[in-house]
């Protein structure tokens, strides 16, 4: 397929603009660019056909199965988008007078109320733009907590080896040293290793529960107690909240601060890289350190708690204004549409789908952790690779020829040749059965005809690229 620049024909166009209804101001030459912009020149018909062809090549949840655990690619109800388009939400400005945006402020306050109830927290900021940004913000709260107590020797954050890669990175950005502890052979936090790691330098412990291999840690209350007894705080990575909404709350597990991924758990489309939302909730002991502005509810109206009145203990802004507001609107719409029972049912279906798929595949693929799993599970292709030289990458690429998006590959790092599947709560049994059959067929091909898989995909617009060359010498722009 040609690029739109390659289809361009000089002096061809399609603009039909109305006469200007305002005075035309001539701009001085010194403010004008000296060279024309490189813009494609095309007719309206050719533009329409070009982007229609691109749309046909785009794969999304509306095309087929998308078990990508890292972003929870699931069906996002269209009503969310409709509500977010309301002029009263989409045509506002954060610097408008407070009395003109009462509905918007109420949305933020309602979202805080419901999300605090879901997580077991007391207060929340919506400023962080995404998950890792939320991690950084939560860790800044932990730092502020220890600094106010003059406990300045607490400069270590403990992170299990199964953690998301952003956890240690965020801790380092927040100025902490990272202490890594190993998992048990069953995939849980090693309590003895944790007891050895905690001490007078422990600022906090970061964990997602269920963890990245899809297991809910049965020792979670003991884990958080160990950290608290050592004087540290417990941080909950909300990336895996999907299977426990309405069933278990991080606050009840002993966590002091949590970030959520509104673009994952609460159904804002995120596959194209944004927009996201990573609000941070906390227990009362951390409330005074939260960023501002925040929304406060007075007797007759909603108001904002701005930075000037936040006090010296606030960590300050981490993003402008209130965060990505329309993401909050979509999340609140999702919560109000489903209600408490609906959120719980979504969690239960996510767990059911993952366990069904895992149990149907366990006699074919190696499942390193027996489960039961929560919303996702991990398979290891290490033995298959030794036997046939077929890798996890080969299996993932071959799925493309069956119209299935590959799952997360080579993560978590504690599982070699890993494929992590998250079927999500919105997939039907019929779809799961079809996908299971494909996975079994691909595995059979790996055993009987491995050389075929190493050349896949063959039915996609682009075959398998030279990934090393693409990484080292990327072509990121069109050369005119």
UniProtKB/TrEMBL annotation:
It catalyses: N(6)-[(R)-lipoyl]-L-lysyl-[glycine-cleavage complex H protein] + glycine + H(+) = N(6)-[(R)-S(8)-aminomethyldihydrolipoyl]-L-lysyl-[glycine-cleavage complex H protein] + CO2. Pfam families: GcvP2_C. It is an enzyme of class 1 (oxidoreductase). GO terms for biological process: glycine decarboxylation via glycine cleavage system. Its cofactor is pyridoxal 5'-phosphate. Keywords: Oxidoreductase, Pyridoxal phosphate. GO terms for molecular function: glycine binding; glycine dehydrogenase (decarboxylating) activity; pyridoxal phosphate binding. The modification N6-(pyridoxal phosphate)lysine is found at residue 264. Its EC number is 1.4.4.2. One of its GO terms (cellular component) is glycine cleavage complex. InterPro entries: GcvPB, GDC-P_C, GDC_P, PyrdxlP-dep_Trfase, PyrdxlP-dep_Trfase_major, PyrdxlP-dep_Trfase_small. Residues 346-445 form the Glycine dehydrogenase C-terminal domain. The glycine cleavage system is composed of four proteins: P, T, L and H. In this organism, the P 'protein' is a heterodimer of two subunits. The glycine cleavage system catalyzes the degradation of glycine. The P protein binds the alpha-amino group of glycine through its pyridoxal phosphate cofactor; CO(2) is released and the remaining methylamine moiety is then transferred to the lipoamide cofactor of the H protein. NCBIfam families: PRK04366.1. PANTHER family: GLYCINE DEHYDROGENASE (DECARBOXYLATING), MITOCHONDRIAL, GLYCINE DEHYDROGENASE, DECARBOXYLATING. Belongs to the GcvP family. C-terminal subunit subfamily. This is Probable glycine dehydrogenase (decarboxylating) subunit 2.
